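Fold this complex.
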Amino acid sequence: MTFLDKSPIHSAEHARSYYAASQRDKAPFACLEQDISVDVCIVGGGLSGVATAVELSEAGYKVALLEAQCIGWGASGRNGGQIIGGFGEALAGSHDKVEQQFGRGASKALWDMGFECVNIIRERVAKYDIECDLRWGYLDVARNSREEDNLKAWQQELRDKHYSEEVRWLERAETRRVVGSDRYTGGLVNMGYGHVQVLDLCKGEARAAQSQGAQIYEQSLVTGLEYGDTCCVRTAKGSVKAKFVVLAGNAYLSQLSPDLAPKLSSKILPASSYVIATEPLGDALAQSVLSEDFAVCDQRTALDYFRLSADKRLLFGGMSNYSARDPKSITATMSASMHKVFPQLRGVKVEYEWGGHMGIGLNRVPQFGRLSDNVYYVQAYSGHGVAPTHMSGRIISELIQNQAERFDIMAKVKHWPFPGGRMFGQQLMALGMMFYKIRDEIM
Ligand SMILES: Cc1cc2nc3c(=O)[nH]c(=O)nc-3n(C[C@H](O)[C@H](O)[C@H](O)COP(=O)(O)OP(=O)(O)OC[C@H]3O[C@@H](n4cnc5c(N)ncnc54)[C@H](O)[C@@H]3O)c2cc1C
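Structure:
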């Protein structure tokens, strides 16, 4: 059984996650059952689509957003909820290399966008008063001196670039106080990053767009797209005529509508990641596990990521998986990882398990592009999209408002299709991941 069986692909329901169970606003949006005309039609109601809808409706555009299931149904409502800055640094491993490849202007723009994306969340949550358990404080943990050196180099780069948020190195004892585990030798705290009930964030932003005049539709799978000066986007029960179309279906686009934009699916692989949520730990145990309520990631390629929820459950995620096969039991597999980090949680009940698909690109840089003069797409955040999706919304909105500068920086990056097509590519990536898992364990 896969997570999609548990949340059937054509079902109106969310995956049975902690997020869906604790979602504040469960009221649905309508299904599209008529023919309408707008300026911009957005396909996909994850954070990319919703953030784009907010930006454009705030700018006065007439917007319709079509979501096949419900808002936040895809990766956006299933992830670890960790808000981490950065936008495209993965391109060549560091800003210096970005500068060599694309020039100083592009490097600076990427750097700035990496922080702007977090600020968009901060400002939007405040502006629209979105209740989503937003907390600040994030910790990158190291397991050995090699990882410590990398994190310290990153801290130096932040200092050199005058990053304004508090970033501090924690020695082993202090790390042990913040994360109740013997596994880590040090850590880098960043008070500019944080965590959030991400389904509430996504739904709250959809409501914000609606309050600015955007029309938001759920249960409205897009099955057809006719190109032209005015495009026509079709669903089973209606259609949208639009001057611009934005495809924001990411890893789910080719699964839900394989014929809509096949060119996009060749550049993206859907990799799975899984999360469990324990029962509420109570104040004392929660304090012993994560005393400062930070979100935490380790440095491995197939990383562990964890944090507390507002009601003090541990949300523990990981196990990036390219094999297209889900584990027999998500709870058993993820509990084993959790107990390696927190042996004190043996005996604590796991109440939710779920998984989702994230879009992985070969170079791990978000993919932007034009399918025609007025049909644009963004996809492939490679497991790091909660904050970057907000930058995408802004960049696409700027493009539609005739400011193509930042879009063009991103669109210039070459994204090659996976060698051997999707099936073979999936196997290659699974092999590659196995290599990195072994390397991470022995180095
Ligand atoms: C388990 C997991 C954990 C993760 N943890 C983190 C984390 O802690 N921090 C972080 O930064 N990132 C994390 N990520 C990545 C992050 O969730 C994604 O990068 C981000 O949510 C992508 O948003 P999106 O809107 O582009 O795509 P999605 O959220 O996948 O949204 C795409 C939407 O498009 C809809 N759609 C597709 N095709 C159609 C169609 N034809 N018609 C209508 N609608 C359509 C789908 O139904 C879906 O709702 C994680 C991902 C997963 C899966």
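The first strand starts at residue 35 and ends at 43.
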